[in-house]
Amino acid sequence: MLKHTRVSDPELYQLVEAELTRQERNIEMIASESTAPLDVMELTGSVFTNKTLEGYPGGRYQAGSEIADQVERLACERAKALFGAEHANIQSYSGSTANYTVFASILEVGDKILSMDLDQGGHLTHGSPANWTSKMYNHVFYGCNKETEQIDYDALEETAHREKPKLIICGASSYPRLIDYERIGKIAADVGAYSMCDMAHVAGLVAAKVIPSPFPYMDFVSSSTTKTFCSARSGMVFCKEKYAKILDRGTFPGCLGSIQLNTMAAKCWSFKYAATQEFHDTMVQVVKNSQHLAKALQERGFRVVSGGSDNHLNVVDLRGKGVTGKQMQIALDKAGITVNKQMIPYDPQKPWITSGMRIGTTSITQRGLREPEIDVIADIIDKVTNAPEDEANIAACRKQAMDLISGFPLYPAGSFDD
Ligand SMILES: Cc1ncc(COP(=O)(O)O)c(C=O)c1O
Fold it and tell me: Given 214, 247, 273, which residue is the final one in a domain?
């Protein structure tokens, strides 16, 4: 692995090796993570890194772009076919920048955005006061119904009619249920707003057609390409054909600089791979594992927010167990299960403590874990929750977690042999 760095910078090389070992030995359940295929790793490290390019195929600002043009055209064609999209712009560097390119394309300073509250499962880039977008645009938010802990569509509709936003965003970071894209698209159309879905978390599930697609109902769809899409750390944006020119101009020169041809090539590979039966089967199992985890945790006395999961993640309310999200994030990490603390809807705790944790099933499903292993994971979570400060308990749980995960290699044996 990294035969050049191993010689030129042993100190850094050791950190890469340590991270590989950490990933191999831990049960990785951060909902925004996945394991990049080796092909994606190869392509992100390819000679495409060397090429500087601005503009679009056929209209670049730099010479020597003919091959790059073929890569970008191929990637866009594959992306459109995969998602059934009218137009694709895959120049974004990440999910965050994907969102910013849409804002740069269609909004003026002071315009109003209606999006899901961060505390209820939304994302920072949708207008959190902590994000720069809150300095540029006016924000109004929708959230979840207190009883169902699912999006309160009636309240969303009322707010949209009252506030008349220029853009309505759906899509979330921590929402375990399906989203009614048709209804949100209709509300946007009724109030004369653009509609946008940030499908960053569920893009792989959408690509594999295991959950409903936002594409028929949204003017714009943005996304990360990591998370369930399992590709390079990058982004992508789609829109209806009538907005293609606005989006392209807003992206470059409006928002971004030179493209990253190496990650674009990796995304191109993934747009092909995501159409395979193998990827489809993995995504089907991601959802089955998530639903099985909800049931297994409920059987052990945990309260699962909204009562279950339709996608790749669960949000667990820990209040009934007398522990906080922060406590569990630390204790589970020591026990070899990586999760993150998470605000639950109407959480009485501060964001750095939280009453909940978010648990995703993408990475473990890629490694081959199925329902029987999910039961073992639920057992370990239960044991850790019962005595999070007890070192002997944590050590026993750690052993159980390592015994389990060691049977499911992160990458096939020999993948990194020189
Ligand atoms: C809904 C949503 N949008 C955007 C992002 C940002 O993506 P990235 O980390 O690729 O910038 C995230 C990341 O967690 C997300 O959950």
Answer: 273
